[in-house]
Amino acid sequence: MSMWWSLHLRREAASVPLARRLLIGTMETAGVDPDVSYDLSVALSEACANAVEHGGAPATGGQAGAYRVTAYLDGEKCRIEVADSGPGFVPVTLPASETAEHGRGLCLIQELADHVHFGNKPGRGGAVISFDKILKWREDTPLVTA
């Protein structure tokens, strides 16, 4: 089975639970194990919150800019990508401490996913977070082919 979806969202806090609920609904419908779905939804929430907070200056007229979320379910793997139009990632030399106010979300994404890539978009700028996780399926999964 292979499917994907993409959202173009405003950089507003209300967009984070929207993306999370869409991912959880997709995973549940596809028959993904709930623990895997939960891990991916938390990682997605952290990536979206990062885009909302750091994803660029407000657009003309004082409105929030936008960011994009794309999710791919392909065979036994899910890949999620969150891209914004902000200044991009600045190299960090120290991991966030447990008491730090910022930076723990990126560490959490790394803990929850199997593979993570943090990068900057070429050209217009912006940050891209992509992460993969191997999927486990429920026993009653309707969409998995043998």
Kindly describe this structure.
By secondary structure, this protein is an alpha+beta fold. 32% of the residues lie in helices and 27% in strands. It is built from three helices and five strands. The chain has helices at residues 15-30, 34-54, 104-112, and strands at residues 2-10, 66-74, 77-83, 115-120, 127-134. It has a five-stranded antiparallel β-sheet with strand order 1-2-3-5-4, covered by helices on one side. Strand 2 and strand 3 (77-83) form a beta hairpin. Helix 1 packs antiparallel against helix 2 and helix 2 (34-54) runs antiparallel to helix 3. The longest helix is centred in the first third of the chain and has 21 residues, at 34-54. The chain starts with a strand and ends in a 12-residue tail after the last strand. The relative contact order is 0.22. The model has no long low-confidence stretch (mean pLDDT 86).
- Strands, total number: 5
Strand percentage, roughly? 25-35%
Integer-rounded radius of gyration = 16 Å
- Judged by helices, strands and strand pairing, the structural class is alpha+beta
Termini distance?
10 Å
Q: Per the principal axes of the C-alpha atoms, what is the gross shape?
A: globular
- Uncertain regions spanning at least 5 consecutive residues: none
Helix content: 25-40%
The strands making up the biggest β-sheet line up spatially as 1-2-3-5-4
Give the SSE string: EHHEEHEE
**Largest sheet, strands/sense/barrel:** 5 strands, antiparallel
Number of helices: 3
Any key phrases for this structure?
146 residues; alpha+beta; 5-stranded antiparallel beta sheet; 3 helices
